Amino acid sequence: xxxxxxxxxxxxxxxxxxLSLRDVGKxxxxxxxxxxxxxxxxxxxxFLSLLGxxxxxxxxxxxxxxxxxxxxxxxxxxxxxxxxxxxxxxxQEPTLLPWASVxxxxxxxxxxxxxxxxxxxxxxxxxLSRVHxxxxxxxxxxELSGGMKMRVSIARAMVTKPRILLMDExxxxxxxxxxxxxxxxxxxxxxxxxxxxxxxTHSVFESVFLxxxxxxxxxxxxxxxxxxxxxxxxxxxxxxxTSPDYAALCRQASDVLVDAINSTAGPHHDGH
Amino acid sequence: xxxxxxxxxxLDPEEARRVRQERLERIGKWVLPLAIMVLAIWLWDRICVWxxxxxxxxxxxxxxxxxxxxxxxxxxxxxxxxxxxxxxxLLLAVIGGVGLAVLFAxxxxxxxxxxxxxxxxxxxxxxxxxxxxxxxxxxxxxxxLLCAWIVAFFPILSNTTLGLNSVDRNLRDLFKxxxxxxxxxxxxxxxxxxMPYFLGGLKIAGGLSLIxxxxxxxxxGAQGQSSGxxxxxxxxxxxxxxxxxxxxxxxxxxxxxxIFLVLSxxxxxxxxxxxxxxLKQER
Lengths: 272, 283
Known about the structure:
The complex is a heterodimer of chains A (about 270) and B (about 280). Chain A has about 270 residues and is an alpha/beta fold.
């Protein structure tokens, strides 16, 4: 019951503001407008998905939030002081060091902060157990399956206990069974730790299953098209995945996405 | 066939054929080159006998082997001299090549400015540069070292530079996100990523440093101060001592093969766990 209450609270987006993007735009040197006038409020504890067709600037938005790129116009306001150690990033590919063991890969962010192997070991082993990779700490990436590599990547992003986790289509390259399993495990981790997630995806089903809010983006120029709160309570599991509620929410999200795509193709018609 | 029966597997004809072929290849890989080598040596011997070629023109293989045994003291002490130059110059090539590559990797501007010099050094034949070195450098060992170094350092420099610059973009971002310093990025990301490239360059440089050492001694040999294998060859040539000439030649070529094998082994040991080049192909 208590857990449900907490989940309800997060789902309704009542947490304190963590980051707001105000009127953010990004124009590349080749003249492409990747983002235009993006307003976005991210609250503490949100699981927010950026959903949209390719070219809608969702990855660019993520890179701006990560500080890997700077906006051409507008600004990002972080509440309180946040530095890069408060940000975890998971790329589309696992992006592991191929020569390093699983342990060393997860240790890396701590190692770069000067934490010795011995000092880092408890945190690393804990994180590995959280992503169900206990016993694989000495394996090298090529000995792992695609899903396991992604787990290492998530463990690496989480080992510094970041306040916000940015994920750039992390499961796009995985098969469906593996993706479902990773979805479940990610939600479990999120519910235990209560960090904030910004999740970029082009899958309606994935965004609805995971998120407390889905932000739909449109392309040319990349912009926020609409937003959909997903009120379904957590924990969400396989039962939710096959429920009529889920199907209805997917339909809603899909409708908004179709509108967003059409808004690019035809003459611009605003809103819903 | 026993391998199949051992596992108790019933294989269809296609799989059985594949297993047979693999076994044949495993054995053939060693037996075939050896057989050809033995045949070539036998043919060499027969040609000498059939055509009654005198020993001072083309000695029989047995005679060469005998000379290798008889002149062992002389030849092996010369080999040591050549090996010393080879390994010292290879060591300097590694230090110089990797050092310059790391310097180049710090900035595109540095690389653009200085790479042409490296290319000039590389493309100018060493034999043509040597007379200059001969004028400017007095010490015989330094002369040879410099010569061999110029020949050997370029593949290491060029390969390592390529390796340092071909780091995955996302990994670079990851290091940036985690606030890695320039040194940390080099130590934990770029140097390990460049390792396969460096090792490839090292294999080439190993052979080249031997060639460099021998060529340098040949050119310097006119002064008659050196005592490496090259000067033994020149000396034997003057005296029409063909058996010793062949023996020295064989020693050099065996040394080259040994250097290549050792460097290949080192490369394999370092890369075997993670790099594609060192992995067995899976079906």
